[in-house]
Amino acid sequence: MTAPGPVEVSWFAALCDDDYRYLGVPDPALAASWEHCRDIALAADRNGFDNILLPSGYALGIDATAFAAGVAPLTERIRLLLAVRMGELWLPQLARQMATIDRMLGGRLTINIISSDMPGESLESAPRYRRTLEWMHVLRTLLDGEPVDFHGEFVDLSLDPPKARTVSGRCPPFYFGGFSEAAKETAAEACDVFLTWPDTVAGVAATVADMKQRAARRGRTLRYGLRSHMIVRETHDEARAAAAELVSRLDDTVGAAIRGRSLDAASVGVSRQAELRDLADDDGYAEANLWTGIGRARSGAGAAIVGDPDEAAAKLQEYRRVGIDAFILSGYPHLDECDLVGRHVLPQLDRGPLQIDP
Prior knowledge:
The chain has helices at residues 34-46, 64-71, 91-104, 125-143, 181-190, 201-216, 236-246, 252-260, 268-279, 309-321, 334-344, and strands spanning 8-12, 51-54, 79-85, 109-114, 148-151, 156-159, 174-177, 193-196, 223-232, 285-287, 290-291, 304-307, 326-330. The chain is an alpha/beta fold. Helix 1 links the parallel strand 1 (8-12) and strand 2. Helix 3 (91-104) crosses helix 4 and helix 5 crosses helix 6.
């Protein structure tokens, strides 16, 4: 199985206070701030990345939507993958914001759909994803410039689309990740790009195959993306040493506290990341060049591709061969690793004309 066409390679703007030189040891210079996260986004643009994920959190970091509006005029070619939690804002206002930011970007907005609990609220998985699905349908309709007449369990709305329109006149692509049954069914029905977290190549292949079947039952075709960290150095030994150095000052109690403060800390996907760590060897490698040590102090994506430039590029190509055609990468510290990946890995990938609209 080979993913068709050129690959999309994205970076990560650490808006959620997830930037370290030593994992689990806060550094004020790397804390989420307008200045620091702006510099990451502009470095990704300068290094030739296609897109950059702006994560959404409440207790951590800074607001993703406000950041997107601020950084949009400063970028030249990179797309912004803006994380938006479904249910958090009034839908018509959300549509206006998304259309306005897309205009500011000249049509370079993409949307990462988030379905985790709202701050201060807890909702069971099944109804939470039913709410997400209703929001996705209505948001897409409004951003497609069509009137809405929707009366569901969570959305009851009849109105014309906002005057603000995207550059294309259509809804930007929806990127979406989740591993529960409810999440996968929601993705199959309503997203454009399904995102999975780090796993063995066989594990990713199984996820892609599963999602292809779910989407096909609905007459749909999705793209598939992998969210992973990267540790790339000029030699194999230097890369492994950098991985070990990253966790050399980590207190496991602090790491557990970091993992637990995320709104998705108990999700099926997070459980799989913990399982991957349990299956790893004594150095934390689940398979060649896939290191699980980052998951000791991070909820969500908990593994990294570790190696020299050829090994790192080859690992990405392995995932390409099982159906992945979009990568959302990150590394610590994010500015330094952005330059390393941009210099050593991007030139080895097929980056050629990219079409990511739905």
